[in-house]
Design goal:
With 149 residues, the chain is α+β, with helices and mostly antiparallel strands. It has 2 domains: 2-117, no CATH class; 119-149. The chain is 26% helix and 38% strand. The protein is built from 2 helices and 7 strands; from the N terminus they run βββββββαα. The protein has helices at residues 95-105, 121-148; strands at residues 2-4, 13-19, 31-33, 37-46, 49-63, 70-84, 91-93. The strands form 2 sheets. Strands 2, 3, 4, 5 and 6 form a 5-stranded antiparallel β-sheet that branches. A hairpin with a 2-residue loop joins strand 4 (37-46) and strand 5. The longest helix is centred in the C-terminal third of the chain and has 28 residues, at 121-148. The radius of gyration is 25 Å and the shape is rod-shaped. The termini are far apart. It binds zinc ion. Residues 64, 66-67, 69, 111-112, 120-122 line the site of zinc ion.
């Protein structure tokens, strides 16, 4: 996302749009961006430089660390903010700042039940196999009883 400094009026300007998710340079099959990066930024210039503030976000196709199922995780940074010293420049690229904040918001261990509604299959499977194990033990005892007879 490039901003032309001279196009920003004294009271700031609002930028809204999308950026290609390839700027994230994510090379991990467990976290694959499936939407463009959206931004809605208030941008202004003062004597110190250029500042930008607002929400950014991207949707990721993730793999649950527990059940290995795929799910879409919306990454939202509601209060993205950056400040760039102009150093005489008329064009400022905010891409790297947006990239960094998205990467910081990525979960290290994504869980498919992040929304509080999805039931992670791993927790279900664990309960289920525990019941099966008990049944197995009973079957074994039954077999042993039969042997005695
Ligand atoms: Zn899961």
């Amino acid at each position: 996302m490039k901003v032309h400094v001279l196009q920003i009026p004294p009271d700031g300007k609002h930028y809204e749009g999308e950026e290609l998710n390839s700027i994230l340079e994510l090379d991990d099959p467990r976290t694959v961006p499936v939407s463009p990066i959206s931004y809605s930024l208030d941008v202004g210039v003062n004597e110190d430089g250029l500042w930008a503030h607002g929400p950014i976000g991207v949707d990721l196709d993730c793999e649950c660390v527990r059940c290995l199922s795929r799910f879409v995780l919306p990454i939202r940074v509601d209060d993205f903010a950056c400040h760039v010293e102009l150093e005489g420049r008329e064009l400022v690229d905010l891409t790297e700042y947006i990239r960094e904040d998205i990467l910081l918001a990525l979960p290290a261990h994504p869980h498919c039940d992040w929304d509080g509604e999805t039931d992670c299959k791993a927790s279900f499977t664990t309960d289920h196999s525990a019941v099966e194990t008990l049944d197995d033990i009973r079957d074994v005892w039954k077999d042993l009883d039969n042997l005695k007879l």
